[in-house]
Specification:
Layout: H1 3-14, H2 22-30, H3 32-53, H4 61-69, H5 72-81, H6 87-105, H7 114-121, H8 136-165
Helix pairs in contact: 1-3, 3-5, 3-6, 3-8, 5-6, 6-7, 6-8
């Protein structure tokens, strides 16, 4: 499933729980890159929670409280420690989240922003490549898709293990 499809699925399931000023929300939806950055981060976060919860850790209010009290970078570190994701993925997730933070704190941020470009250059998809204002979003989008694919594959693997046990 493509990142955009995952994003749309997430929004269908959880969109009504996203608390954003309706006027701002409408303007954000018109700017696809801003919208994409914000919700790809949420989708990655949501998928990390789902896969971490399937690892066999003790469930209950403690795990739920932990999952909702730590940010995506901390969840990625936990997933890495649990052997769910590799070092490249955790590094990409950290830079993806930093890009999200830049966009979240500056609505006029873009992929031409020097701070954004700095993080895009550190993504695995951009290593050894020339990153420009014109291609930076492509490197970012490819990195988020790679992370989504890795987490999704692990989720499916965990689901298969659960099915085989039951």
């Amino acid at each position: 499933m493509a990142a955009k499809d995952r994003l749309e699925q997430f929004l269908e399931e959880h969109g009504d729980k996203v608390l954003v000023d309706p006027k701002l929300w409408e303007s954000v939806k018109k700017d696809n890159r801003w919208y994409s950055v914000f919700f790809q981060d949420i989708t990655l976060d949501w998928m990390l929670v789902a896969i971490i919860e399937r690892t066999g850790l003790r469930r209950g209010k403690e795990l739920k409280t932990l999952m909702y009290s730590i940010n995506i970078v901390q969840k990625a570190k936990l997933a890495y420690c649990l052997g769910i994701i590799n070092k490249t993925t955790i590094d990409d997730l950290e830079h993806i989240h930093e890009i999200r933070n830049i966009f979240a704190h500056n609505y006029k941020a873009s992929f031409a922003n020097t701070k954004v470009l700095k993080h895009v250059r550190k993504l695995s998809t951009a290593k050894g490549q020339e990153v420009t204002e014109k291609n930076s979003y492509k490197f970012y989008s490819d990195a988020t898709t790679n992370c989504l694919d890795i987490i999704d594959a692990q989720y499916k693997k965990q689901t298969m293990k659960g099915t085989q046990k039951g």
